[in-house]
Amino acid sequence: MNPTQTTLAPAVQTSFINAANQSITVRGIPFAYRDTGPTGGVPLVLFNHWGAVLDNFDPAIIDGLAQTRRVITTDYRGIGGSGGTAPLTVGEMAQDAIELIQALGFKRVDVLGFSLGGFVAQDIALKAPQLVRRLILTGTGPAGGSGIDRVGSVTWPLMLKGLLTLRDPKVYLFFTSTANGRRAASEYLQRLKARRKNRDKRPTPAAFLRQLQAITAWGKQTPDDLEHLQTPTLVVNGDNDVMVPSGNSRALGERIPNAQLVLYEDAGHGSIFQYHADFVARALTFLDD
């Protein structure tokens, strides 16, 4: 493959809500991304959840990480500002990600994946171990993990509940029903609205459904040989994840050699958003170790 590249603007120390929308072409397909934080050092590349676009990255987490790290956030193929058709497998998403990283000119990166992004991050590390220095897996699970192939059946009723209660479905999908969970959900959703100009495009229904097929296939896939994954890994989740059951994070912690596991109490799928300050501190300590 010979990816082509636009002229890259240097990373700058700016808030994520003001970061410029940029694009790079890989195999004739434009991929949307934002670049924040100081130049130099090993870049940190982030991959987000099912149906997420650039404006679904939590500004509190991006800004926290970008205090000392160059942070690249991106849209998957066929989602948001990226062109092409959304892939039907996690493997295709991972291959896109590898070629995107190479097109950006990075020889070695750290990778952080949330939910679907955690599936993609694992596959990147397995396919291109020389490319990934450190790995952070949040709200996610291994291929063939428990309940992952049933994400759709869990999600649709809670999306309907959000519609009927006039609330964003992420209130029910990402957070617990406790006072702490509800407060964290409200604060998180307000942060996602902070960017006023040049917001990303929303995902199309077709792309949303194609990504669900990729998630379901990952849940039915033969388990990967994670015991041979030598990349230092930090695994983070809440103790009550209804989307990717928390036992999957425990399994990652057990199967990946020398992995560190953090399970936040009274937290769900979006634990890193609920405990964003603590998560950023832990992530930076892990990356700088």
Automatic annotation (TrEMBL):
Output the superkingdom of the source species.
Bacteria
**Protein's organism:** Pseudomonas saponiphila
Q: Gene3D superfamilies under this entry?
A: alpha/beta hydrolase
Q: Which residue range or ranges hold the AB hydrolase-1 domain?
A: 43-273
InterPro entries in UniProt: AB_hydrolase, AB_hydrolase_1, AB_hydrolase_fold
The protein depicted here goes by the name Pimeloyl-ACP methyl ester carboxylesterase
